[in-house]
Specification:
Helices cover 71% and strands 1% of the residues. By secondary structure, the protein is mainly α. A two-stranded antiparallel sheet has the order 1-2. The radius of gyration is 24 Å and the shape is globular. The relative contact order is 0.13.
Length: 294
């Protein structure tokens, strides 16, 4: 029996390892290509890279806007992309768009789970129903309202949009987790005279950290990689353009410069990878939020 279980574990772990390897190979190829010289990148694949081909010039041109030679242009010199501003813009958009819905949804989830008020179940069903509404159908009506109050082209516009689009999932996920917390713990706090606000800040938030971190990963990755919402509500001006918009522009204007496209692509990947690996210990526990009562 033990040998059969061991063989089964080897097969499962081996299969998962192969799938992870196949999933990682393209990302590794982008990373290697982003450090290669343009001539070598055009002539050979990334798997044939020699040690002397690596250079940091690609990132200097993409992030710092450094000029680089381009024989196809009249002057023989092309200006770099300078994605540093777009990087800061993406952080400015993503961090509030992640924290604001978490804060609001945590309060709402606690109210739905542990407070009794008229229409509680009806309101919660309405929140769950919003999960099936595609965000695309709301873009134009919201844009019209923004135009009436001169909110288009600002970071506040996209903060509010991402907050509204992310609240239903956040509320549902946090409700499942918060409602599964031990009732005796909260009843003891009520007997000791604690208010709802004290219980929420002192008990619920610390105990709900896995669910909060899990949703933070989902929301952060969604907002960071978003192009449609940013393009609709912010616009394409360089002062407020995010990384996804700049990368789209590079695809059209620098389509032949693979060394710049791969460097720009990896710049957009660095922060999501750091966020995921920094919060991954909470990720699985957050996904199982509310699956077990007790």
């Amino acid at each position: 029996m033990k040998s059969r279980k061991l063989a089964s574990d080897i097969v499962v772990n081996g299969t998962l390892g192969i799938l992870c390897l196949l999933w990682t190979v393209p990302t590794f190829g982008v990373l290697v290509s982003s450090f290669r010289q343009p001539e070598a990148l055009r002539e050979t694949g990334w798997w044939k890279t020699a040690p002397g081909e690596f250079t940091l010039a690609n990132y200097e041109q993409v992030v710092g806007g450094k000029e680089y030679p381009d024989p196809t242009l009249p002057g023989g010199v092309a200006q770099g992309e300078d994605m540093g501003r777009s990087f800061l813009n993406s952080l400015t958009v993503t961090v509030p768009s992640t924290l604001i819905p978490i804060m609001i949804a945590a309060f709402a989830a606690y109210g739905f789970a542990w407070m009794r008020f008229p229409g509680r179940k009806v309101f919660f069903v309405f929140v769950v129903a919003l999960l099936v509404v595609p965000l695309q159908i709301a873009l134009i009506p919201i844009l019209r309202d923004y135009m009436q109050i001169n909110l288009t082209g600002t970071f506040l516009a996209v903060w509010l949009a991402h907050t509204g689009f992310g609240l239903p999932l956040a509320t549902y996920l946090l409700f499942n987790y918060i409602s599964s917390l031990p009732r005796d713990l909260l009843e003891s706090a009520f007997i000791d005279g604690a208010s709802h606000f004290t219980i929420f800040t002192r008990l619920i938030l610390p105990l709900s950290l896995p669910a909060l971190a899990s949703f933070a990963i989902f929301q952060f990755l969604w907002v960071w990689n978003d192009l449609l919402v940013a393009l609709v509500f912010i616009g394409g001006t360089p002062e407020v353009a995010v990384l996804t918009q700049r990368l789209q522009e590079m695809t059209g204007s620098r389509g032949q410069d693979w060394h710049l496209l791969t460097a720009g692509a990896f710049v957009t990947m660095v922060v999501p990878l750091l966020v995921f690996f920094g919060l991954q210990r909470y990720f699985v526990r957050g996904l199982l939020a509310g699956s077990v009562k007790g």
